């Protein structure tokens, strides 16, 4: 396996890049305690093979992509039920038209979004969960490039490129889901500083990692969604503490957590956490919200001191928005019973741009 696991609250799901009867990859599930392992799908040339990126679960189907196979041997998009039934190939990539190697998909509830990272047609795309309405939103050039999975904040999709940009050191960008509003937020200064993971959004900052840095071992950074406020938070110092950060960051509101692929006592990488010393920023202490009960089994009551066109958004630890609405009353109940147990962040915004971010726990 070389992609992150996901959970439906009962099982963990993942893929292997190789292995299985045809040695081209599998889909599996396992309970968090290590029991009930099931390998429930074996890839083939027809289905696409060599799965890449994490799976995405919409409550009914698991969605994913492959790097090769399919009609053009350039990879596919697929869906399958968690019990291993109803496998459907949704789309065949063509490297000359829309690229290949799509990686992890995300969703806004209507479309699936992703990026292709190889070929003359490298692009940002969207497709409906039934396989219809495939649309290429943006064509990357040698200046732009394409790399890690996208992040959605309810208005823009955010992503990184590993190469390209003014200094050929990679970029951070954003684009609207309809393909308009593409904006390059950041040009990294040197090729060796290229971003190498997806971004994490905490409601105020986007966080990510790069290669390179002061001692060429990798860095952690943050930047605001408008492209301001870039800060290099940490330079990985030496092999004992791990180096070459790899994969996405997650957060519990106090720490960022991640992995490195090298270093540590055995030389094979480490798990690390980084303290967010300044915590969550509240830009207006007059804008207040109380939440109860917290933790909760799903129903949270939100009490506000002001109801002037406040918008509330709730994100999971990966930065994905799971709930968004306008708050019109001082007391509002929000039901997250269908959300998986875990930590979530609540962000309240008013029309003046002030915001407050709180942490909640779904049991």
Can you describe this structure?
The chain is mostly beta strands. The protein has 2 domains: 6-243, Neuraminidase; 289-362, Immunoglobulin-like (Sandwich), CATH 2.60.40. Helix content is 0%, strand content 44%. The strands form 8 sheets. Strands 1-2-3-4 form a 4-stranded antiparallel beta sheet, with no helix packed on it. A 4-stranded antiparallel beta sheet has the order 5-6-7-8, with no helix packed on it. It is globular, with a radius of gyration of 21 Å. The two termini are 29 Å apart. The model is unreliable at 278-285 (pLDDT under 50).
Can you describe this structure in just a few lines?
The chain is mainly beta and 363 residues long. The chain has no helices and 30 strands.
- Write down the CATH class of the largest domain: Mainly Beta
Mean pLDDT over the residues: 86
Number of helices: 0
CATH superfamily of the largest domain: Tricorn protease N-terminal domain
**Structural category:** mainly beta
Which regions contain 5 or more consecutive residues with pLDDT less than 50? 278-285
Strand content: 35-45%
Q: Radius of gyration in whole Å, from Cα?
A: 21 Å
Q: State the end-to-end CA separation.
A: 29 Å
């Amino acid at each position: 396996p070389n992609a992150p696991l996901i959970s439906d609250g009962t099982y963990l799901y993942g893929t292997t890049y190789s292995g299985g009867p045809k040695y081209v990859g599998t889909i599996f599930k396992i309970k968090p305690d290590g029991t009930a392992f099931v390998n429930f799908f074996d890839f083939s040339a027809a289905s696409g093979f060599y799965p890449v990126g994490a799976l995405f679960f919409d409550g009914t189907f698991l969605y994913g992509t492959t790097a090769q196979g399919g009609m053009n041997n350039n990879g596919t998009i697929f869906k399958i039920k968690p019990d291993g039934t109803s496998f459907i190939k949704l789309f065949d990539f063509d490297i000359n038209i829309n690229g290949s190697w799509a990686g992890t998909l995300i969703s806004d509830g209507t479309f699936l979004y992703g990026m292709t990272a190889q070929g003359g047609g490298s692009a940002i795309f969207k497709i409906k969960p039934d396989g219809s309405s495939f649309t290429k939103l943006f064509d990357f050039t040698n200046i732009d490039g394409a790399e890690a999975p996208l992040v959605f904040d309810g208005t823009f999709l955010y992503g990184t490129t590993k190469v390209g940009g003014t200094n050929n050191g990679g970029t951070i960008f954003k684009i609207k889901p309809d393909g308009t509003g593409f904006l390059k937020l950041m040009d990294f200064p040197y090729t060796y500083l290229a971003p190498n993971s997806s971004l994490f959004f905490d409601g105020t900052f986007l966080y990510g990692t790069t290669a390179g840095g002061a001692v060429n071992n990798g860095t952690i950074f943050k930047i605001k969604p408008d492209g301001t406020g870039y800060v290099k938070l940490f330079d990985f110092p030496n092999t004992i503490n791990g180096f070459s950060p790899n994969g996405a960051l997650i957060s519990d509101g106090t720490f960022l957590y991640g992995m490195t692929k090298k270093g540590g006592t055995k030389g094979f990488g480490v798990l690390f956490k980084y303290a967010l010393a300044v915590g969550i920023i509240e830009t207006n202490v007059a804008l207040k919200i109380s939440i109860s009960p917290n933790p909760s089994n799903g129903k949270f009551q939100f009490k506000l001191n002001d109801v002037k066109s406040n918008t509330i958004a709730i994100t999971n630890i990966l930065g994905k928005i799971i709930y968004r609405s306008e708050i019109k009353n001082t007391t509002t109940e929000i039901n997250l019973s269908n959300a998986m147990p875990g930590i979530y962040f609540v962000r309240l915004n008013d029309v003046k741009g002030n915001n407050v971010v709180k942490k909640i726990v779904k049991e």
